[in-house]
Design goal:
It comes from Devosia neptuniae. This protein is an all-alpha fold. About 60% of the residues lie in helices and about 0% in strands.
């Protein structure tokens, strides 16, 4: 591996800024989780609807 061309400076932010960023990340994570859950639920329901009532009339 070669050395990087530029060495970036590490910037330490104040605690207020870090807290604000953490809050934004948490909200984004919750929104993505809810979106994924809705997506999965939609596919589940569409699959059940597409199979129709015959799904429950079959012999076990």
């Amino acid at each position: 591996m070669s050395a990087p061309d530029e060495i970036h400076e590490v910037i330490i932010l104040p605690p207020e800024v870090e807290a604000a960023r953490a809050k934004v990340r948490r909200r984004r994570s919750i929104a993505l989780g809810l979106g994924l859950a809705l997506f999965a639920l939609t596919f589940y329901l569409l699959t059940i609807i597409k199979m129709g009532p015959a799904l429950f009339d079959r012999a076990l």
